[in-house]
Every structure is written in structure tokens, then in C-alpha cells.
Amino acid sequence: MKRSALAVGSMLALAALIRRACSNELFLDYLLNTVVNKIPFPTTRLALYRAAGMRIGHNSNIMMHVRVMSPHGIEIGDNCIIGEFVWLDGRAVRVGEGPGLKIGNNVNVGANTIPGGHLPDSADFFGLPEKTVVEDNVWITMNCTILYGLTVGEGAVVSAASLVNKDVAPYTMVGGVPARYLKDRARDLDYKLYNRERWI
């Protein structure tokens, strides 16, 4: 009984700290990426991400070790699985302007998927965070790079280790570096993802 009360108290204290840290983005990113993303309990982890301003739908899971930048700019739909070591970057918009990263429903993002993009001619190597959209029923497999400002269309599949540098059409499969059209995907998709293990 004492242990569970201590655990609940610790989570509430951390949630309060995260809410206060929302005005200091650097400190908030530090908390999310050194403490929260290592918590082995999905329910606790998701509650803390929500406390930081991230919008997360019903039955979605963000696995351990996911890197989160600007959580107030991230929106994730229902029944999504975000794999380990994925980068979620919501920096494309300011607080209150809507999501910089919008992920639809029933999306599976494989481990080690990252965003990317810089202005190569910029004197200060300025990053190029533009709004990125991943529509419903998309499967982004492992080790992919999705450049900022793109849309991955509904039902699309991005093959492993691909570099996506342009929009992906709905219900297509792409792959390679850079990603190219491989084939069409069936349009009669009727599934809901669910992954809420107790320890990951």
C-alpha cells in the first residue's frame, strides 16, 4: 500500500513539475527526454506527455525511449503505435497554433524513425521544421527518415530504411533512398491497432 501511494505521489509531483515547465521549452524537453521516456509504464508515460500538452488519442501507445520536441505541437490520433527511439517533433508551430506534427488514426511508426531537414544555404544552419502530416492507416516501418513539411497519405506504407523527401500518395507503398513508388496498397483496410503492454 505504501509503495503504490508513493508511486502515485511521485507521478503527481512529476506531472505538476511538467505543467510548470511548459513555459520553459528547453527544460520541458529535458524532462520528457531524460525522465518521462524511460518510465516503463505506458499509462503513466502517456499521462505525463498529455500534461506537457501533447494531444494523444484513445488506445494509442508511445513506447519507451521516444524523443519528443515541443509536445504542444504534436497531435496523435486513436489506435496508434509509436515505436522505440522515434523522434516526434512539433516545433513547426508556436504554442496555440495547432499541431506541427499531426498523426492520424491507426498509424504504426516503426522504431528509429526520425524527421529531418535543414536549410543548407543558411548562415546559421537553420532547421526547416514545417508542418508534417501522417494520415490514417499509415505504416511507417523501421529506420525511416521523413523530411519536414510532407504528407504521408492515407493507407500508405513506407518501407524500412527509406528517406521520404516528397509527399506519399494515399494507398501506395514506397521505399528506397530517396523513397520511390513500389506498388499500390489494398484500399479495403479494416483494422484497429492496439498495443498497450504493461511494461513497454
- The CATH homology group name of the domain at 55-184: Hexapeptide repeat proteins
The arrangement of helices and strands along the chain is: HHHEEEEEEEEEEEEEEEEE
Radius of gyration (CA) equals 17 Å
> Could you describe the largest sheet, including whether it forms a barrel?
7 strands, mixed
The assigned structural class equals alpha/beta
Describe the model.
By secondary structure, this protein is of the alpha/beta class. It has a domain of 130 residues: UDP N-Acetylglucosamine Acyltransferase, domain 1, CATH 2.160.10.10. It is 20% helix and 23% strand. The chain has three helices and 17 strands. Strands 2-5-8-11-14-16-17 form a seven-stranded mixed beta sheet. Strands 1-4-7-10-13 form a five-stranded parallel beta sheet, with helices on one face. A hairpin with a 4-residue loop joins strand 16 and strand 17. The longest helix is centred in the first third of the chain and has 20 residues. The mean pLDDT is 87.
Q: What's the arrangement of secondary structure elements?
A:
Layout: H1 2-21, H2 25-34, H3 42-51, E1 55-56, E2 61-62, E3 67-69, E4 74-76, E5 81-82, E6 87-89, E7 101-103, E8 108-109, E9 114-116, E10 132-134, E11 139-140, E12 145-147, E13 151-152, E14 157-158, E15 163-164, E16 172-175, E17 180-184
Parallel strand pairs: 1-4, 2-5, 3-6, 4-7, 5-8, 7-10, 8-11, 9-12, 10-13, 11-14, 12-15, 14-16
Antiparallel strand pairs: 16-17
